[in-house]
Design a protein that fits this description.
- It is a single chain.
- This protein has 427 residues and is of the alpha/beta class.
- Helix content is 44%, strand content 10%.
- Helix 10 (227-246) runs antiparallel to helix 15.
- The radius of gyration is 28 Å and the shape is flat.
- Residues 1-13 and 421-427 have low confidence and may be disordered.
Amino acid sequence: MNETRSRRRPSNAVDAADPAFEWIADPDALEEFVDFVLRHDAYAIDTEFIRERSYYPNLALVQLCVGGRTALIDPFAVPIKGLVRLFTSESVAVFHAADQDLEVLELACGAIPATMFDTQLAAGFLGFSTPSLVSLVEQVLGVRLSKGDRLTDWTVRPLTAAQCAYAASDVTHLLELRNLLVAELGQVGRTEWVEAETELLRLRPRGQQDPNRAWWRLKDGRVLRGNDRLIAQELCAWRERRAQAEDRPVRFVMADLAVVAISQAKPSNSAALAGVRGVDGRAAKASVAGEILAVVERAKGMDASELLVPETEDFDRRLRPALTLVSAWIGQLAQDARIDQSILATRSDLVQFLRRDEGSRLGQGWRASLLGENIGRLVSGGAALAFEPSGTLVLEHRSDRPIEIVVSTPQASWTQPAADGVDAVPA
């Protein structure tokens, strides 16, 4: 039995009533509240979940706020798929840092909102750097929220009054926050940028990992060489699939240390496997040990071409200085335009663009005219970066008037590279 589920208590009550929120643990009450929400053009939404003891996140609470009403919906007591008709409506779901909420809602409901707004994402276009909800509400609205207890187990029932008040506060100010951010975005002409980025966030693939690429996240996997890497690849894929099937964290199936040690030791029998560092009682069980040994044996016979490796930063060496220059310019542009730099472009984005990959974000949408075209000018020699006395960088049209710098070449014999690792000595 899942440890989380075994600790749950009756979910029909909270420890204390609070007029600031409605506790929904009845299907009819949920249906009535959804009807109420559908009469509005936007609603605030948040979730609480636990994922420490499972592969998939376990939804433990859904908070909704609109029209002066705040609801805390207990997914253990009501069919949470009752939210689907809300998600498929034209009403805008307002989140803060929506990515994980979307993942858990998709798992629990089989759907996510068709239209949404993310206050954290929008704030990034107005000079905030991935702000927390507490920070953003305080800076924009002048309201100080309680930070709450990050280690709360939201699956235990009944919830305390303090837990419920904290959960309710996560949605209480979102609609007001959204209205102010939307107004500011309109003034600076960035509404369409935010809409485009929000849709990319909404449609981003999320959920379970690709087992065949799981080894890319293996701690200390970089120490492996040759066939050891193939064994690690196959062991991690086996571990990922088993974790998915049993809904357990991958570390509960097998620790990273054991994967690396088995890949190097290549045990051929149960006794040898049990003696490998990091292998505990779970992996040493006869049925599990048999699967592990079979994976190792199969991987030993695989061809090197079957190893899946992550993309690297390999690109034209002559462009490596360009990566440094472009990164500096992006940082300056982010500061000047008051846009979170991580929204403009990540290092991976820059590498992908310099390699001329077709899927680069910098060659699409609003980034193409703001970034892609200008980076292209800089790399092709049509533009240059200049340093202003104020300490800022500015992108300029190139003058084609390079400053001649004369540097004499040292002639002393002791400046030559040493041979065979022996330090050079002056002649």
